[in-house]
Amino acid sequence: MEFTLKSADNLLRIFAPHTYTPAEQMVSTLIYSGSRNGTLQVMKVVNEARKTRLHEYEPEDKFIRHFHSCTEDNDKRLNMEDYMEGVFPVVSTSMVLGLGQNLKRVRCIIHMGRGDPSAIVQMVGRCRRGGNGGIALLPMEKERKNGKNSLTDFDDKSLRGEDTQMDALALTPVCLRVALTLDNLVGYIPMSFDDPHYQAEVAREAAANFPPCDCSNCKKSEADAIISNIQQMTVDNFHAFWKDPLSIQKDESLKVLVRKKKFTHLKPDCSYPLVVASHLAGHLELAFGLFYYETLGPEPKFLPSDFFGTAQATAIVDHINTINQHGEINTKLIEHVIGGQMFSGQVDLLGRAIKEWLQGEFFQNHLKNEAAHLRFVEDEVNQLQKQREEYLRQHAIDVKEQATKRRKTIAAQKAKMKNREAQEGIMANDAERKARSVARTKASNQKQASDSQPKAERRWKIAANKATAQENRSKREAGFLP
Predict the structure, then answer these.
(1) CATH value of 5-141+217-247 in 3.40.50.2300, 3.20.20.70, 3.30.499.10, 3.40.50.300
(2) Looking at its record, which EC class is this enzyme (predicted)?
(3) Angle, nearest 10°, between helix axes 196-207 and 176-186?
């Protein structure tokens, strides 16, 4: 399919306008989405395709209603009753409708999302419950961002995982019935007819007399016919669609709704200098002028600039990098930026004019000058790089020398300090010895002084005692004392 699964725009090619297929003629269908918001988006796209805008907000619409986990229980019951009675033919739902429901009326299943293939098979199983056959559609994106988009992206070690299995289901060339069976049995989708599990399952189905498979891989032309004509599918011709889709003649009056693409303004990307860009614009104007006079003759009513002037030429030059990629001129982009061509062959002429200018002398000289300038810049850069390397080398040497000098200075200062400390230590020791000697002398003198005073006192006492005794003897001899 052309669009992303999230947008649900692939449904635009499935449903016809309400004027072509009325609700009562629509085949009973379930459209599964991966989320509640997805169910509403599906309803919007379906009503857009049927040209019944805003009917998705009509709770009792006669064509499509939704069913999901947040739908009120009474609404669920009433919607299912109306669906089984044929009041409306299409239900936009999430996986919740596949739980505990036995809907024999369903003839078509459309699954708009991704998930575990085994869970998708359960949802597809809602179809054909009445034993009368059905069609299941699983739209897949042509290319999934960051996904596996070719058979070469797969190997034997990367076949498991939900996203990988869905990518494998979209790309595998083998029978889808067998592939989904093996996914349930061994947990992966086979990618080759030589897969031993695939061959064993094919042999088992053949031995059990299984009917031929109707999948899009086994019957590719029939599947293509169904997709091509599915807008014409109704209750009356459903059996033909199911059994013999190649017999359905395409109704050319039915047109698939195509959304109008939003106009995107391209950002200018011209990398040419102003002089070169102006020269290219002038060359384009001159080329168109010659083309104009060759087409309309020498005396046209209007000037060439009335149809292609400076504004259009400048618009082309502004986007020249995008227009000229890898030597290929994008003529569609030329037509886009000038607002469409005025004359048949105008865009092709402008493309040829650009090629001629690119190969011309002026542009080639510009390329040479630019190359010479680049070489000059490169030489200057190399020279500066060498100067920087030399500066860094010399700086490293200077730093090393300064470090050595600083270490020597520090060592000399330390040695000087040690010498000074040693000298100060000697002087301190001498002073300490002198101080101790003085202290000892002083102490000795003090001791001598303290010892000499008592002796003198004793001598004076002894002398006084002797004198007293002598006096007493003299008095006694004189008879003064008894």
Answers:
(1) 3.40.50.300
(2) isomerase
(3) 110
Q: State residue 31's pLDDT score.
A: 93
- Which residues lie below 8 Å from residue 42, measured CB to CB, with a gap of 6+? 8, 11, 31, 33, 66, 92, 112
**Which residue's structure tokens are 């947008």?**
7
pLDDT reading at 417 higher than 70: yes
Q: Write the pLDDT tens digit of every residue in 289-331.
A: 999 998 888 888 889 888 899 999 999 999 999 898 878 888 8
Residue type, 297: G
- Torsion sign over Cα 394, 396, 398, 401: negative
The reported pLDDT for the residue numbered 156 is 66
Angle of the 162-171 helix axis to the 117-124 helix axis, nearest 10: 60
**Contact assessment for residue 63 and residue 55, using Cβ atoms and an 8 Å cutoff:** yes
Burial 18-52 (b: 16+ CB within 10 A, else e): bebbebeebbbbbbbbbeeebbbbbbbbbbbbbeb
Number of H helices, E strands in the chain: 14, 7
Who contacts 292 (Cβ-Cβ below 8 Å, separation ≥6)? 300, 304, 307, 308, 343
Instruction: For 344-367, write each residue's pLDDT tens digit.
Output: 899 999 999 999 999 999 999 999
The residue type of 173 is P
Please tell me the predicted confidence (pLDDT) of residue 99: 61
Angle between helices 346-359 and 274-296 (to 10 degrees): 140
pLDDT of residue 100: 61
> 185-203 pLDDT, tens per residue?
888 888 889 999 999 999 9
pLDDT for 287 equals 92
Which residues are bridge partners to 64 per DSSP? 90
Residues of the chain with CATH 3.40.50.300: 5-141+217-247
Cα–Cα distance, 281 to 349 (Å, whole number) = 14
**Nearest 5 degrees, angle CA 385-CA 390-CA 391?**
95
SS3 category, 213: coil
Within 297-345, residue ranges assigned H as helices are 310-318, 320-323, 331-337
How high is the mean pLDDT of the chain?
Answer: 87
The pLDDT tens digits of the residues spanning 1-27 come to 678 888 888 899 999 999 999 999 999
Chain-centre distance of CA 32, in angstroms?
28
**Measured CA distances, 243 to 44, 221, 320 (Å):** 31, 13, 55
Q: What residues does 328 pair with on adjacent strands?
A: 325
Alpha-carbon span 288 to 304, nearest angstrom: 7
46: tokens are 């379906």
Percent of the chain with pLDDT over 70: 94
Say yes or no to pLDDT of 453 above 70. no
Residue 65, helix vs strand vs coil: strand
